[in-house]
Amino acid sequence: MIKHAADLHQLPPTNDLLLAGGDDRLTLDAGTGRSRYGCRPTPDTDLVSLGSSTASHISPYAYQAADALRQRCVQAMRGEPELVVYRRALAAVRQRLLAYCGCAPEDSPMTLLAPSGTDLFMLVANLRQPQCTVLIDGAETGSGVPLALLGPRQGAPHMVAVRHADGSLRDAGEVDAEYAAIVDKAASRGQRVLLVLTDVSKTGLIAPSIASVQALRARWPDHLDVLVDACQFRLDPVTVRAYLAQGFMLALTGSKFLTGPTFSGALLLPRAMAANAVEAVTSHSNFGMLLRWEAALTEMERFAAVPQTVRLHWVKHFEDAVTRGLMQNAAFTPLPVAAIDRSALGVSPGWDSVQTIFPFTLRGADGHLLDAAEARRVYLQLQLPAIGTRRYQLGQPAAAGALRLCLSARMIADLHEGVASDIDVAAPLARIAQMLA
């Protein structure tokens, strides 16, 4: 970031930093001024964000917080070395994240920060050195995850499909059995196995079932590690703590449900595992990741101020509104999403037990089902100006070419604070129907 000794107290502008310290997925398209995720590094108040399963544009609140942190860092760097300032700010990010999760100091997990969810999987592969890895199929997880899990001791990971090609659900028992067969075969050979439990997937699923993973862990306590892919971060803090109490690792990001800018990841290692892990001393700064986490934490803390009863009210309201909206037009076919079941963790169902990602396929006027490429054109066109309507950002096409309507922490905080009066899903659905007619 900082190139010359004379510039030690300087940092690039906030706009530039929010795009730095990641990879080419953050590069802006010369024509649209947007990243591959369809986002700009500045607030876009005319764009309605309903696609937090993919990404969201940064809010004015979050941008102001990121800019203020940059200014504080610049001021501090006038009297202290860059890395001292950066490490202190990064430690504050960890503390705020753990505070949100309700982790007490005496049993707090180790928190490793990384630019993206993909980087988190790479960290786990290097840390645990698995010889066999099994996870959900690529249509339901991050595109870079399989490659990231190519650890030093294994080949390509085993991937288990949870949907058929048409988007319908596979039998949950068959899915659990397929995971178990892979784990049992590898563990019986003495191999170290990494099982990735996805909570929640791109289309809103938990797979494999938590109870089946607990049974596998009990059967192979010395051979099986479990990583919970919670990169959507659609979890209540009590659920996070329950997973940690199982001895499971958790991968989180601030860029999905929390609506921070893309490329902000965190890996939580349970206390027992953290005792055997060595955290590398930060040898270089990544102020881009730092500012993106600052933006995400701003949204997180706004959401934390919303009472549980209010959160539950709005997630159910959103569920009802989307369900009604999708039923009112034959152009839309909701993909089935299994009920969220975390009963095996022993926690009472809360707002995070309600569906917040709603995938649906599209049919043209001639009745044909739009494929992923055609659905992507609709997804992109929704973000363009149109006479008499607003612009909308949905979740990009996933399994079976399904678009996704998603609830986010920011939407709930806006409703609670009076920034928004309701959630309008009828208008974007009407525009899609008009485009398909």
From TrEMBL:
This is Aminotransferase class V-fold PLP-dependent enzyme.
